């Protein structure tokens, strides 16, 4: 309720100022296409020559079309593409060949078949700091900034894209700090509150404005003369206990001398098919539908995260060479895509990412390719991805086994940078649907590239069909490729206490206080 009063106060001030509306002559630009998700999905199928798609499996194990959870039939095509074989058939035997030939091949193929290609020409992003606030998170002093990244829409002003981000940095450290950029919903952690004398002035002005707009309010305020409609929000408790493994991830980061940032994916690109002619994808396409190899939402979110890193590179308090990316579930998929393609990111914490993330695409266990090609989630991927669920099409039919690339190669694109694959357990809500085993197999197979580039992987063999997933709470954290399954649910929070020291060690960072 207290926040509502602040909102009303801002609203009254806003309405008191007459805004100058800039009129746009829409006749100068292509008219934006307004599709429902179903219409957009149908349009993509038509472009691809697909007549029908196989339905995705039902998560309800009692349904007739229930998902498979029988490991004995989960690998219909167990031979996955060889990461270290060029498209020409030649073997990759050196880091030089990896960087110059194999990695570029994989980037092109994975973009084309899975996530879509980023356009060569994308408008610039101009960051504005809306608020700079000195706050406390628990007992930790921080500088918190609320930012908006406006995407230049001069070429197509009918679509406006503004990226929301918050950056929070500890101030009780001597040197620039590492930062973990997280996909989520940004907000200032603990806004500084006005002093009592300032609150008195705010309440006086607020009452006067309410009475002016609603004269009947005068009698109510006279009836309750001591009532203050606007009150201070609860502040941080300086005497709170020191941060520990049960503290929030953000407080654990700050206590370790890290900063954090949160970027809002939906402010970059909507999380639905109807939004594909809007957001950054729609802006670049001038409001027109995608073509089959155009980028999907996961790739768009990764582009937005990279623009957040652009800003962090300008902040003198940030060590821009030590910025990581984090996300869970669909944002875990986005975090892995970001780390794979945006090579300036130094580390990634990839939480419960499932199909479209770390799990092998060709596995049939829980979530399937067909789960991502229906009109509820297809927008995450390139249009071309729909081909692999086609039951009837101009090209025949295809399945995940027809993919020439898979998620082990996506993970390999992260090498040799820090890559931590995280999951919980089905008993606590990290559903079997996510196929933890399929992600472990992909992580094992990806290790050959980490080794090729001279760093440790999981420190086990790379035989993805024979290596057993470690017991819960047994982390493989000895290399720059890491795996840990915690005993919680659909979250990566329990793994922060392991990720932070692991990443700090390999980034050669230790907190030095003032």
What this model shows, in words?
It is a single chain. This protein is of the alpha/beta class. The chain has a single domain, classed as Rossmann fold, CATH 3.40.50. Helices cover about 30% and strands about 15% of the residues. The chain has 13 helices and 11 strands. The strands form 2 sheets. Strands 2-3-4-6-5-7-8-10-11 form a 9-stranded mixed sheet, sandwiched between helices. Strands 1-9 form a two-stranded antiparallel ribbon. β10 (about 420-425), α12 (about 435-450) and β11 form a beta-alpha-beta unit. α8 (about 295-310) crosses α9 (about 330-340). The longest helix has 21 residues, at about 95-115. The chain is globular.
Topology:
Blueprint: H1 2-16, H2 37-48, E1 50-53, H3 95-115, E2 125-137, E3 140-151, E4 162-170, E5 177-183, H4 196-213, H5 217-223, H6 249-255, E6 259-263, H7 279-284, H8 297-312, E7 318-328, H9 330-341, E8 347-351, H10 369-373, E9 390-393, H11 407-412, E10 418-423, H12 436-452, E11 481-485, H13 496-506
Parallel strand pairs: 5-6, 5-7, 7-8, 8-10, 10-11
Antiparallel strand pairs: 1-9, 2-3, 3-4, 4-6
Short description:
With about 525 residues, this protein is α/β, with parallel strands linked by helices.
